[in-house]
Amino acid sequence: MAKPKSMSSLALLARPWLVLAQNEREKYKSKLEEAFGLPNCCGAIDGTHSIMALPTIQTSDDWCDLEDNYSMLLQGIVDHEMRFLDIVTGWPGGMMVSRLLKCSGFFKLCEGGQRLNENVRTLSGGVEIREYLVGGVGYPLLPWLITPYESNGLPASISAFNAVHGAAKSLAVKAFTQLKGTWRILYKVMWRLPSIILVCCLLHNIRIDSGDILQPDVALSGHHDSGYGEQCCRKVDPLGKTMRDILVKQLLHSKQTAAPK
Questions:
Q1: Whole-number Å distance between alpha carbons of 150 and 156
Q2: Which of 87, 135, 176, 200 has the greatest number of C-beta atoms within 10 Å?
Q3: How, if at all, do strands 84-92 and 71-78 pair?
């Protein structure tokens, strides 16, 4: 399988705008908890396909995805304002997002304790919860990546958690929808696409930082990855399962505490 084009020089240029900033993380967490009631949450993660054109002299099944399109996969982590904190791109669209995650530098840093491993939060009853992201069913359930519960007929407390989780995860969905709806240049040839994606993510962040509002004539599709079904990942880390159960209890406790006497 082809490997992503190196973007080291562009990544260096991007650093002031595109980084999971340590000094800003507490603000992100506070805003996310205020909006969704998820304590110590650092952001949302998702993936999307960028449909591309291969040069006429080059054809490769590596780049043909499950929808028979030539595409490149982009993984992004966003904050409470849909600002990109981390991106990974350059990998073939036929990959599952769970595999792209595992191939990313961010995954290796998290597994090595160098990301999302500070400022443990103590909840009611003395229970501790670490920093984490929220992601969809295409991702593994890990101590630092919380996915929703699957199955029908769930208890009310778990259904409530899934609703809150889905609302928080939608930040990444909306960010990708805005990115692809605004920067139509993303639909380009393969060898330029990683650099174009990075620049568009930077411009997306700069637009948010500047307080720019999308013009009403910018057409945004209903979903950033329309036509692509989400492939479920069945990997469950026991510590991730414990973390998720703690969050369910915390949300229920917060709801009961806030209820009028």
A1: 14
A2: 135
A3: antiparallel
Cα separation, 101 vs 74, whole angstroms: 10
DSSP state of 142: B
Residue 189, token pair as written in the block: 């040839």
In angstroms, the CA 206 to CA 67 distance is 33
pLDDT tens string 196-223: 888 889 889 999 989 886 655 555 555 5
Q: What is the pTM of this model?
A: 0.87
What's the token pair of residue 1? Answer: 């399988």
What is the helix (H) or strand (E) element at residue 55, kind and residue range?
none
- Please tell me the number of Cα atoms within 13 Å of 104 on its side-chain side: 25
Dihedral sign of CA atoms 143, 79, 32, 126 in order: positive
Return d(Cα 39, Cα 132) in angstroms, integer.
9
Residue ranges covered by each domain of the chain: 8-258
